[in-house]
Amino acid sequence: MNFIDTHCHLTDEKFSADLTGVVERAKNSGVGKIINFGSTLKDSGDCVELAEKFSGLFAGIGIHPEETQDFDEKTCDKLADLAKNPGVIAIGEIGLDYHWEKSGEGRELQKKIFVAQLDLARQLNLPVCIHEREAHGDALQILKSEARDLKLVLHCFSGSLEMAKEIWKCGWFIGIDGPLTFKNSAKLPEIVKTAPAETLLLETDAPYLAPTPNRGKRNEPAFLLNIAQKVAEIRGETLEEVARYTTENAERLYFLRERGKKF
Ligand code: NI
């Protein structure tokens, strides 16, 4: 079985001591490809370096909505330069996060930076990984007006079933993470059960959100199997089936088969 961890942060310092072991454990579990996403310009550069260093690792580059101080008028040019590296396969993670940002001014700035990076993705012809927390309405509105022509995933999906249906209607993907395995997973199991198979991606978001039975510990790509197992259980499918279609979906969204970089 082959899995792809479609959203990860192996640049996090929590991995600095044992990164090679983490990547090896992933490969031994069948997680042969891992996509790391940047949150700042520096972190994006670090993701690109990891993609150069390890086979099977890829990079998404972008400025996270909680890192707006990192964005200025030159940032998109710098990201475009980074995107020349063959390990770069996406723009992300970009989007809106209203959890800590309560001011109208701060939220407007997030929107401006979000739209600028959607434009960059269009110019570079790259798919997009969207981070969206507590900003469902605004995010959906921006995506519908600014991103109808883009390929994208709502990573670590936390919206309602109604919102998921809107996403699916647009031909977009949703990313499923550790919270699916939590006792308080709320509406997520119903969304996963209802989802058309061709819209689902698996991701760990490591080092965050470790699935049960490692909840609360450092997450890592090898734990993707706990999420896949839960998806299989909820949808009444085998683990092999889940591996097959989620891997195909990831390859389709991120053009992984067409990429020049060796796996
Ligand atoms: Ni993330």
Uncertain regions spanning at least 5 consecutive residues: none
Q: DSSP strand (E) fraction?
A: 15-25%
**If you average the pLDDT, what whole number results?**
96
User: Mind telling me the C-alpha Rg?
Assistant: 17 Å
Strand order of the largest sheet: 1-2-3-4-5-6-7-8
Overall helicity: 40-55%
Summing up helix and strand content along with how strands pair, one would put the structural category as alpha/beta
Number of helices: 9
Series of H and E elements? EHEHEHEHEHEHEHEHH
**Small molecules in complex:** nickel (II) ion
Main pleated sheet: 8 strands, parallel
Q: Label the overall shape.
A: globular
| First and last CA, distance | 16 Å
Question: How many strand units?
Answer: 8
Write the layout of secondary structure elements.
Blueprint: E1 3-8, H1 19-28, E2 31-37, H2 41-53, E3 57-61, H3 75-82, E4 88-97, H4 104-124, E5 128-133, H5 136-146, E6 152-154, H6 161-169, E7 173-176, H7 188-194, E8 200-202, H8 224-235, H9 239-253
Parallel strand pairs: 1-2, 2-3, 3-4, 4-5, 5-6, 6-7, 7-8
Helix pairs in contact: 2-3, 8-9
Q: What can you tell me about this protein's structure?
A:
- By secondary structure, the protein is an alpha/beta fold.
- 40% of the residues lie in helices and 17% in strands.
- The protein is built from nine helices and eight strands.
- It has helices spanning 19-28, 41-53, 75-82, 104-124, 136-146, 161-169, 188-194, 224-235, 239-253; strands spanning 3-8, 31-37, 57-61, 88-97, 128-133, 152-154, 173-176, 200-202.
- Strands 1-2-3-4-5-6-7-8 form an eight-stranded parallel sheet.
- α4 (104-124) links the parallel β4 (88-97) and β5.
- The radius of gyration is 17 Å and the shape is globular.
- The relative contact order is 0.16.
